[in-house]
Automatic annotation (TrEMBL):
<dbReference type="GO" id="GO:0016987">
    <property type="term" value="F:sigma factor activity"/>
</dbReference>
<feature type="domain" description="RNA polymerase sigma factor 70 region 4 type 2">
    <location>
        <begin position="114"/>
        <end position="166"/>
    </location>
</feature>
<keyword id="KW-0805">Transcription regulation</keyword>
<keyword id="KW-0731">Sigma factor</keyword>
<dbReference type="GO" id="GO:0003677">
    <property type="term" value="F:DNA binding"/>
</dbReference>
<feature type="domain" description="RNA polymerase sigma-70 region 2">
    <location>
        <begin position="18"/>
        <end position="83"/>
    </location>
</feature>
<dbReference type="InterPro" id="IPR013249">
    <property type="entry name" value="RNA_pol_sigma70_r4_t2"/>
</dbReference>
<dbReference type="InterPro" id="IPR036388">
    <property type="entry name" value="WH-like_DNA-bd_sf"/>
</dbReference>
<dbReference type="Pfam" id="PF04542">
    <property type="entry name" value="Sigma70_r2"/>
</dbReference>
<dbReference type="InterPro" id="IPR013324">
    <property type="entry name" value="RNA_pol_sigma_r3/r4-like"/>
</dbReference>
<dbReference type="InterPro" id="IPR014284">
    <property type="entry name" value="RNA_pol_sigma-70_dom"/>
</dbReference>
<dbReference type="InterPro" id="IPR007627">
    <property type="entry name" value="RNA_pol_sigma70_r2"/>
</dbReference>
<dbReference type="InterPro" id="IPR039425">
    <property type="entry name" value="RNA_pol_sigma-70-like"/>
</dbReference>
<dbReference type="InterPro" id="IPR013325">
    <property type="entry name" value="RNA_pol_sigma_r2"/>
</dbReference>
<keyword id="KW-0804">Transcription</keyword>
<dbReference type="GO" id="GO:0006352">
    <property type="term" value="P:DNA-templated transcription initiation"/>
</dbReference>
<protein>
    <submittedName>
        <fullName>Sigma-70 family RNA polymerase sigma factor</fullName>
    </submittedName>
</protein>
Length: 170
């Protein structure tokens, strides 16, 4: 237990030091990439939150390079979330109004999609696509094979790979 407190204290002091020394620089760096000061401020905070959630205090030689690397990952997640939200809203626009989900259901569905996207992150695009065709669209393995132009054995392998990712994530 003592070691955990020491690591947490070291991590907090490291992040606090990084925040005081480089927060303005990081916010400006993000603002130049986003063009929006509000989004830049939010993503800078997300960057520092990610650092606080780390298990160990990093040994930094180049703190700005380190912050930029973490911020790039946060930025990629931000863009991916925007893309997913745009696709979700386009799909909702196709649903007849009388069967469309209420706002609360829409929010729950979107958060579930984000969690699923995060869970499948790192899998090859075709593996993700096969999994989503099976789980979200309800297609059978033969239909997925035709849709993706791959063999049935490959579909089975892809679905197994995605299912294993989900299993080990739980």
């Amino acid at each position: 237990m003592r070691r955990s407190i020491t690591v947490t204290s070291a991590l907090t002091s490291t992040v606090e030091g990084l925040y005081h020394a480089h927060h303005n620089w990081l916010t400006g760096w993000l603002r130049r990439r986003l063009g929006c000061p509000h989004s830049a401020a939010d993503l800078a905070q997300d960057t520092y939150m990610r650092l606080l959630q780390a298990r160990e205090a990093p040994q930094l030689v180049e703190p700005r390079a380190f912050l930029a690397t973490v911020a790039k990952r946060v930025l990629c997640n931000h863009f991916r979330r925007q893309e997913l939200e745009r696709a979700y809203l386009q799909a909702l626009a196709q649903v007849p109004e009388e069967v469309a989900p209420c706002e609360e259901q829409k929010a729950i569905i979107f958060e579930t999609l984000l969690a699923l996207d995060h869970l499948l992150d790192g899998l090859p695009p075709l593996v993700k696509r096969a999994f989503l065709l099976a789980q979200v669209d309800g297609l059978g393995q033969g239909e997925i094979a035709r849709e993706l132009g791959i063999s049935l054995a490959t579909v089975k392998r892809y679905l197994n790979k995605a299912a294993m990712r989900c299993y080990f994530a739980l």
